[in-house]
Design brief:
single chain; six-stranded parallel beta sheet; Rossmann fold; chaperone; nucleotide-binding; globular; CobW-like_C; alpha/beta; binds guanosine-5'-triphosphate; hydrolase; five-stranded antiparallel beta sheet
C-alpha cells in the first residue's frame, strides 16, 4: 500500500556540487520525519544531523569508493533490508551517490530490488551553478545524468551573477527534458519536494500567530522557498474516468515532479480506491479496498516546477466523469492496471 512503502531517493551530482550539504539540510529540517541515509562516508554529515542518521547506526556506511562499484544489487538489498526494518520507522531513505557514480545504475538497482517495503522516490541531480560549464566540458556524461533526473537542483546560485544563472538554468532545463528544475543556495530545497514531511505534534496542536501566517513560523523559513515549485490539488466526489486520467498521466507536462493521492474510478472498480505515486517518469497505482464507511473521494496533489497550474487544474477537471452517459466500459481500467505492481505487463520505468 502507498502509505506503508518507504520512498528511496537517489541523490547524485558531480564532486563538490553540494550533495552532502543538501542531505544535511534535509536532515536538519526534517523534524518529525525519520530519514535513513546511505552514504559512502559519514564523515561529512553534521553532528546534529547524526542524531537522526544515527538511528540506523554505522551499518549503512558503505565504506570507501564509488557506491555503485562497491555494492552489487544484492548488497544494496541487504542495506535496504536493514533500513526498512519496521522498528526503525523510517519515512524516507536517501542514497547519496558518490560524485563519480553512474546514477542510472543506482536507480536500476533500486528499481530491481524485490524489497516490498520500498518504492522508488526519484533521482535528484545536484548541479553546481558556478562550475556547470567547466564540469560539462570535463564530463560529457553530465548531459546523460541530467536527462535521467527527475529533479535537478541548481545549487550555489549565490556564486553566479543573475545573467550567468539564467544561462545555466536554460541549459539545464534543455538537457533535463521532463525533470523539474529548482534553484538553491546551500542545498536548501523544500523537503516536501522529496517526501511527505511528517508534521510534528507540536505543529499540529500549536496555535499559529498572525506572524506565522504572514511570514511563516520561524527558524527554517529560509529553508522553504515555496516559490520554487507549485502545487495543484484536486478533491472531488465525482469519480475519474480511467482512460482520461491515463491520457493525462501519459502526457504529463515537463516539470510535473510528483503526484500523490487516491483515485476513485467509480463503477469501473467500485471495490477499490487507487493510491497513486508518481515521481518523474515513474508511475504506480496501488489498489486497496475502500475502508469501511469512508467517503468516496478522489484526492490528488501534484507538485511541479515551471508548470502551468491553471492548465493542470483544467486537465484534471476534465478527467471527472460526466454523468451516466460517460460511464467507463469494462476495458477502461487496463491502462491503469498496467501500472499496478506485480501485474504481468508492468512497464519498465525509464531509467536510461
Ligand atoms: N557558495 C556556496 N557554497 C556551497 C553551496 N552549497 C555547498 N557549498 C560548498 O561546496 C562545497 C562542496 O559541498 P558538498 O556538499 O560537500 O558537495 P558534495 O557534492 O557532497 O561533494 P562530494 O562528496 O565531494 O561529491 C562545500 O564546501 C560546501 O560548503 C552553495 O549553495 N553556495
Amino acid at each position: 500500500m502507498t502509505t506503508q512503502q518507504i520512498p528511496v531517493v537517489v541523490l547524485a551530482g558531480f564532486l563538490g556540487a553540494g550533495k552532502t550539504t543538501l542531505l544535511n539540510h534535509l536532515l536538519r529540517s526534517a523534524r518529525g520525519t525519520r530519514i535513513g541515509v546511505m552514504v559512502n562516508d559519514f564523515g561529512d554529515i553534521g553532528i546534529d544531523a547524526m542524531t537522526v542518521a544515527g538511528q540506523v547506526g554505522s551499518t549503512v556506511s558503505l565504506g570507501n569508493g564509488c557506491l555503485c562499484c562497491a555494492v552489487d544489487a544484492s548488497e544494496l538489498d541487504e542495506y535496504l533490508e536493514v533500513l526498512t526494518r519496521p522498528e526503525l520507522r523510517l519515512d524516507v531513505i536517501v542514497i547519496e551517490a558518490s560524485g563519480l557514480a553512474e546514477p542510472q545504475e543506482l536507480v536500476r538497482m533500486v528499481l530491481a530490488s524485490d524489497n516490498e517495503r520500498i518504492v522508488y522516490g526519484g533521482l535528484i541531480e545536484v548541479v553546481d551553478a558556478a562550475e556547470f560549464a567547466a564540469t560539462r566540458s570535463r564530463h560529457p556524461e553530465t548531459d546523460r545524468h541530467l536527462a535521467a533526473a527527475d529533479l535537478v537542483v541548481v545549487n550555489k546560485t549565490d556564486r553566479v551573477p543573475p545573467e550567468q544563472l539564467r544561462t545555466v538554468r536554460e541549459t539545464v532545463t534543455g538537457l533535463a527534458g521532463r525533470a523539474a528544475v529548482v534553484e538553491a543556495v546551500q542545498g536548501r530545497v523544500d523537503p516536501e519536494l522529496l517526501f511527505d514531511r511528517v508534521v510534528p505534534e507540536d505543529e499540529i496542536t500549536g496555535q499559529m500567530s498572525i506572524e506565522d501566517v504572514l511570514y511563516g513560523s520561524g527558524e527554517d523559513d529560509h529553508a522553504h522557498p515555496h516559490a520554487a515549485y507549485e502545487t495543484v490539488s484536486l478533491a472531488t466526489s465525482t469519480p475519474l474516468h480511467p482512460r482520461r486520467l491515463m491520457a493525462f498521466l501519459d502526457s504529463r507536462p515537463e516539470g510535473l515532479y510528483r503526484i500523490k493521492g487516491f483515485v476513485d474510478f467509480g463503477t469501473a472498480d467500485p471495490a477499490n480506491r487507487y493510491g497513486v505515486h508518481a515521481v518523474g517518469r515513474f508511475l504506480r497505482f496501488y489498489p486497496e479496498p475502500w475502508p469501511a464507511g469512508e467517503e468516496r473521494l478522489t484526492q490528488l496533489v501534484l507538485i511541479g516546477s515551471g508548470t502551468d497550474t491553471a492548465a493542470l487544474r483544467k486537465e484534471l477537471a476534465a478527467c471527472e466523469q460526466n454523468g451516466p452517459q460517460d460511464t467507463p466500459d469494462e476495458h477502461s481500467m487496463w491502462g491503469v492496471l498496467r501500472y499496478v505492481p506485480g501485474t504481468e505487463d508492468e512497464p519498465e520505468p525509464d531509467a536510461s
